[in-house]
Every structure is written in C-alpha cells, then in structure tokens.
C-alpha cells in the first residue's frame, strides 16, 4: 500500500500557499485528515472549493490564525489516558531516576505539546520522585508548531475543567488557586522550556532520556512516519525510552525500537551495531592457511567450506579488481552463475545489473566501509515465478584493515515480503480506522474546548470587573439551564418519535397481517393507506395508489357504487354502511366481497375520512349455500334424523322422515325427552349407555331398540329400530345426533330364514 495519498491540485496549491505565507509545512500530514480539517474551516466561513478558499486567504490574511487553530488539533489534557500514565509513573519514572543517580540530570522531550498539559504532567510525575531538587535535575523540552498554543502553555493558567484529570493531591501540591483558574507553581514551570519545532524537517533535540510523542504520528503519512521514526531514534540516548499514544502502533514492526510495555506504548531504543570491526565491516579472524602438498584442510577451513556449501543463502565474492572470485552452490542455483563465470569481470554478469545495478552499491560499500542492504527487490527467474531478494553488500577486510574483497549475500525474502505487505496493509487499514475515530472524537472535544475557550477569553478580559464577570457567569448558567431544558425537550421529542415510529410499525404489521383489505380514504376520497392484502388481490402496490382518487383506480373492485354510502358516512348520516358486491381479482377470478364502510375518527369531532374493510366472502357464501343445500337434503330425507340436547335428551330438530315415522310434529316432540319413546329402557340406563360417547371414549354408538309410535289410525304401536348415535361437543350448543333405521323388515326376513334353515 502506498504511503502517499493523491491530492487534488487545488488543495496542493493551498497547502503550498500556507507554507510560503506562514512557514507551516503540512506536506507530511495525512491528506485525508488535512482535507477534512480545512473543509471544516471552509464550512465555518461559508466557502465551497479549495481554490475559492485560497483566494479568500490571499485577500484576508487575518484568516490564517483561525485556519491553523482548526488544522492543528490542540486536543490534550493532564494525564490523558490515565492507565498509560500510571504505568509511566510506576515503572518508567523510578527507573530513569535510578539510572541517573543522585547528581545526574534527566532530559525529556515532549513533541506536539499543544497548550502544555502533557509536559507539565511529566514535570509533576518526575517531581514526585526527585523531590524539592527536581528543577535542577530535570529539563523538559516542549515543542509544537502552533505559536498560539505555545503562548498559552507558557502562561500555565488553566480552568477548573482543564485540571479535572490531575489527581487531587497533585493539584493541591503543584497548583495555586485563583478565583477562576489554577496556575502551575513558578518553580515547576522553570523545568519546562517551550519552543516552536517541526519534527519532520527540523533537527531533533539529542541525548534525550524520555521522548513523549503521543497522538502525533497518526496524523502523518506512512512515508513521513518512516522519516520521523529514525529522527526520534537519533534523538534518544542509548537505552532511552519512547512513550507513544495508544492509537499509534507503528513501532510494532520497527527494528529501531523494542517494546517495554506494548499495551501502554512504551518502547526502548535499540542501538544499531552494524560497525562490528575497526574497518566498519565484518573482519575475518585471519587469512586462510595455504595448503601444501599432502596437507589436509584445517578444521577452520572445513567449517568455512561446509558453511558456504550448506547455507541456503546465495553468496558471491568480488575482489578489488571487480573479478568474481567465489560463488557458493546456492548462488549457482538461484542466480544461474556457473563455474565458468569464476574469474570473469563482475560487470559482464547479468546479476551485476539485474534485479538492480550492483556495481555502484559495491563502490558505495567500499567507500563507506559499511554494509549496504537492498531489501525485497523483484527478481525475474523464468520459468519460475518472480521472487523477492534482499541483497547485503558487505566489504571484507584483512587483519591489516585493508579491504580485499566484497561479499554479496542474496536472501530469498519473498514470503517475508508478502507477509510484510499484508501486515502493512492491515496495519494501515487499522491505523486509518483508528485515526478517523480518534479524529472524530478529537473534533468533538475541540468544538467543546473552543466554546470553553471563548468563555475563558471573556473571563480573562473582565477579571478586573468581577461583578460583570459574575453576571456573565450567571447568564452562562441560565443558558446551560435553558440548554438542559432544550435537551430534555429534545429527548422527550425523540422518545415520542420512537413511540410514534414503533406505533406506526405496529399498525403496519397489524394491517399486513389482516386477512382483509384495508383502504383508508381522506374526505376527498383520495387513498391514504393501502395494505398488503389489497396489493395481493388487486395487483397494485401502495406507492402506486396513495394520493390517487379511489374512484379512478383501475382495479377489479367497483368503488363507484359505494360513493353514496361513503358520502353518507362522511356526513355523519349513518354510523357505518355494509354491502356485498361482485369483483374480479388480478388473476381474473370472480369474487364476492363484503365491504364495510366506517368513519375515520380522531379525537376531534367529525369524520376525517372513511375506512373500507374489504373481505373475500366467496368461499363463505359457497359454504352457506352448501350448508342450506345439505340442510334441505337432510330435512326431506326419509331416514330419521334427530338433533337432541345432550343434557336433557329433548328434541331440538327432527327431519320430515322422523315426524312421519313417529307420527308427531316437531312441536309435539319438543315437549318430551327421547327416552319416553324407548320401550323397556329407563332414562338412567340410556344415559349410562351414552356416557362413553359423551366422554369422547368412542366416536359413535350403534344399538338396537324398540320405539313407541302412533300408528296410522292414531293408536299406539311399537317398532324395532337401529340407532346410530354421534356426539358433537365442539358445536355451540353441543348436539347429540341420532340417525334411526327401521329394522322390522330385516327382523322378519331373518326370522323366515331361520325357520327355513331349522331341521324338520
């Protein structure tokens, strides 16, 4: 991933103008953050476009302080991120004080100090350990780009809100209280030296024991970060410590520092020991012994040969005349250098200029006397895939300190390079996300601090007029109270809005779940609501019909015949109207729809519209027709069908066949229980027989019995029947149905058959 962002020409010209006019160099800042901060200031002055703002700056030079105050995010506080500061106070400060002894002096550098809270926090932390002599043994250099912020820092005067992060004991020990401010004690202020400094371009302060650079690197581009980190490394004394912000993770992959406390971003400088001999490079212990006739190689020589032959790293050696004098087996495999190439000028070999021109690097290593490293160079090696090589060019010196050859080491770092790219991409993405979150948070804090700064300026200007100041404070309190009331009202409105939204969602869900069409019309009969049932049946979506005249809709439901009923409901002549009309759904299927027209009523009097509830009663109408048809069939059937009350066993309904067989009308039968017609069976016995049926233990009960009846002459008679009894307990009211068949003929035939079959 590239460390530099593409910048619009207009923005680039604006940045260059700021640098030339005010000497503030933003070239290393992340352009996304810089663009966002400048655009914020442009919105405040009501200007669109970087070119227009550039012209505005040229015409109004007094705009520069406000712009720089917006771009340079001076968001800081005492002991910001308390957990990290506690780790610094408990682990780092005592260790540094112990290292300098009783007479040494500590040098500390606070980079990007803003309005001074950070260096003064350092001064208090070290004063707690150094004691009364702290000012003589402690020097804190505090630097920043913003001159206005530095002027504020030198005054060391803070509001009660500014010192909220200071522990109470330190606040009482190191601050003097004025009516409206806290002022750091003069003796402790002497320890801190403020100055303007650009860490990207200015020379660093050196021999620093502790360097604090918190939440600065996140605003710099990757290339600029890679430029700043070596400067910070150079500034630190050996074994010096670096204290970063919690959002800065650049050192997780840097070889210049090692973690002391990674969680709290405390790192130690790693000294770079690439000078390992007097000549500045690797020096052999001595020249190899010359083998005479019959002499075996020494152990030293055998070890060197085994190392050269067995290592996976490719090595070439070039003497001072530029001739290739050594190539190990790995180099012959990787670099296609054969035995015939030994003794040839190195410049004639392809490896001397591919993947990179190496002769100048050999000259550079020879001149400087130190190794030169070329990392992750792409090397084409057909037909194999390209690989990444790291090349170390190391001058070799004899005991007399004179160079006798140059060693070229080729390492295949393809996997390491790939992992590094993936890690850097992930790291860059994470840093960008953290930066954006931090920037948003800091912008909110900056906005709040700007409001407080305005109030503080008023307080500072009117310190001599205390009564006026108190009136302003009173007004401020009233404004805060009003603001609280507005916030409370806003919160109440928000809650009501949420309740309204939830209620609307609930009503929409109810309308969607209803198995009927709901059409809401306003007084002019325009559609205001159209639920999902209507969409499915009539084929028009809600957005296609809302605000249209209902009577003009091209759907299969004729609404024109309902106009008069709707007008009567709207005028209040009737409470509601109901009718059944024929309709055709979107598939062409004929429907019978029952339409109920009701007024749409609010809390105020008078209808505000009408609500049409459309139900598909096609199947219900068919069911009713079928039920009537079935009733006619059963009513005229010659089989006896009796509907009985399960409790009293009295007749409820009797079909025509039952009246004829019993010889009595339904009015007569309703006055007697069914058990009065049974011959030889008491009411108790019949109820005991019905008990399993009524309890649901059996579905039907088939028995034979003898019934009383009135014969054709009007006299009493008896007849055998077969009864099929069924209980319908789920009906309202429950029913006991008895279906009877006359079995007199069957018994007669059975008797005759028995006589025929009997022996004579």
TrEMBL record:
Entry's EC annotation: 2.1.1.80
Sequence ranges assigned to domain CheR-type methyltransferase in this UniProt record: 1-249
Swiss-Prot/TrEMBL keywords: Methyltransferase, S-adenosyl-L-methionine, Transferase
Pfam families noted in UniProt: CheR, CheR_N, PAS_4, PAS_8
Enzyme class, spelled out: transferase
CDD domains reported in the protein's UniProt record: PAS
Protein name stated in the entry: protein-glutamate O-methyltransferase
Organism: Falsiroseomonas frigidaquae
């Amino acid at each position: 991933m590239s460390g530099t962002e593409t910048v619009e020409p207009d923005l680039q010209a604006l940045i260059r103008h700021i640098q030339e006019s005010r000497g503030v160099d933003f070239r290393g800042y992340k352009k996304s953050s810089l663009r966002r901060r400048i655009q914020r200031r442009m919105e405040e002055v009501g200007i669109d476009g970087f070119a227009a703002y550039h012209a505005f700056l040229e015409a109004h030079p007094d705009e520069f302080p406000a712009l720089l105050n917006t771009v340079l995010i001076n968001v800081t506080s005492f002991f910001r991120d308390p957990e990290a500061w506690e780790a610094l106070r408990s682990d780092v400060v005592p260790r540094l004080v112990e290292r300098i002894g009783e007479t040494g002096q500590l040098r500390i550098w606070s980079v990007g100090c803003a309005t001074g809270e950070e260096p003064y926090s350092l001064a208090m932390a070290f004063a707690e350990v150094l004691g009364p002599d702290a000012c003589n043994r402690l020097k804190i250099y505090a630097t920043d780009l913003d001159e206005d912020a530095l002027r504020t820092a030198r005054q060391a005067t803070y509001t009660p809100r500014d010192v909220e992060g200071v522990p109470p004991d330190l606040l009482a020990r190191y601050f003097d209280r004025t009516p409206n401010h806290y002022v750091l004690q003069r003796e402790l202020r002497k320890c801190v030296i403020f100055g303007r400094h650009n860490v990207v371009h200015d020379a660093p302060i050196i021999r620093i024991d502790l360097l604090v650079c918190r939440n600065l690197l996140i605003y710099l581009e990757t290339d600029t970060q890679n430029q700043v980190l070596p400067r910070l490394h150079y500034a630190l004394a050996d074994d010096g410590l670096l204290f970063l912000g919690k959002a800065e993770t650049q050192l997780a992959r840097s070889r210049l520092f090692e973690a002391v406390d990674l969680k709290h971003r405390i790192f130690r400088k790693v000294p770079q020991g690439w000078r390992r001999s007097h000549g500045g490079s690797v020096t052999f212990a001595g020249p190899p012994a010359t083998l005479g006739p019959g002499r075996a190689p020494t152990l030293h020589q055998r070890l060197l040969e085994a190392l050269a032959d067995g290592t996976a790293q490719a090595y070439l050696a070039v003497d001072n005349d530029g001739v290739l004098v050594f190539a190990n087996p790995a180099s012959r495999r990787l670099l296609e250098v054969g035995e015939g190439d030994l003794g040839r000028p190195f410049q004639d070999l392809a490896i001397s200029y591919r993947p990179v021109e190496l002769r100048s690097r050999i000259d550079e290593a020879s001149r400087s006397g130190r190794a030169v490293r070329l990392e992750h160079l792409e090397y084409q090696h057909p037909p194999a895939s390209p690989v990444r090589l790291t090349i170390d060019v190391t001058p070799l010196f004899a005991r007399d300190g004179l160079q006798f050859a140059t060693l070229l080491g080729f390492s295949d770092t393809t996997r390491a390079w790939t992992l590094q790219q993936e890690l850097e991409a992930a790291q860059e993405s994470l840093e960008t996300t953290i930066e954006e979150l931090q920037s948003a948070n800091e912008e909110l804090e900056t906005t709040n601090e700007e409001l407080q700064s305005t109030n503080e300026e008023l307080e500072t200007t009117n310190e001599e007029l205390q009564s006026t100041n108190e009136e302003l404070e009173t007004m401020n309190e009233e404004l805060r109270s009003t603001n609280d009331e507005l916030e409370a009202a806003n919160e109440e409105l928000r809650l009501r809005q949420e309740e309204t939204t939830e209620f609307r969602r609930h009503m929409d869900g109810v309308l969607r779940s209803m198995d009927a069409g709901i059409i809401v019309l306003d007084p002019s009969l325009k559609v205001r609501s159209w639920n999902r049932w209507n969409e499915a049946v009539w084929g028009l979506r809600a957005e296609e019909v809302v605000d249209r005249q209902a009577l003009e809709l091209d759907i299969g439901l004729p609404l024109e015949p309902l106009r008069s009923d709707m007008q009567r409901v709207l005028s209040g002549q009737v409470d509601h109207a109901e009718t059944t009309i024929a309709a055709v759904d979107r598939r062409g299927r004929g429907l019978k729809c029952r339409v109920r027209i009701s007024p749409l009523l609010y809390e105020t009097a008078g209808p505000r519209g009408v609500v049409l509830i459309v139900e598909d009663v096609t199947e219900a109408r068919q069911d009713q027709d079928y039920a009537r048809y079935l009733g006619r069939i059963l009513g005229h059937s010659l089989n006896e069908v009796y509907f009985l009350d399960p409790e009293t066993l009295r007749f409820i309904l009797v079909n025509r066949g039952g009246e004829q067989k019993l010889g009595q009308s339904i009015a007569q039968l309703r006055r007697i229980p069914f058990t009065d017609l049974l011959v030889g069976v008491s009411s108790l016995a019949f109820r005991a027989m019905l008990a399993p049926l009524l309890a649901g233990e059996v579905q039907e009960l088939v028995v034979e019995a003898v019934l009383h009846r009135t014969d054709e002459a009007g006299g009493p008679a008896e007849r055998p029947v077969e009864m099929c009894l069924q209980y319908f307990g789920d009906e309202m009211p429950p029913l006991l149905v008895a279906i009877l068949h006359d079995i007199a003929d069957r018994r007669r035939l059975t008797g005759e058959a028995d006589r025929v079959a009997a022996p004579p």
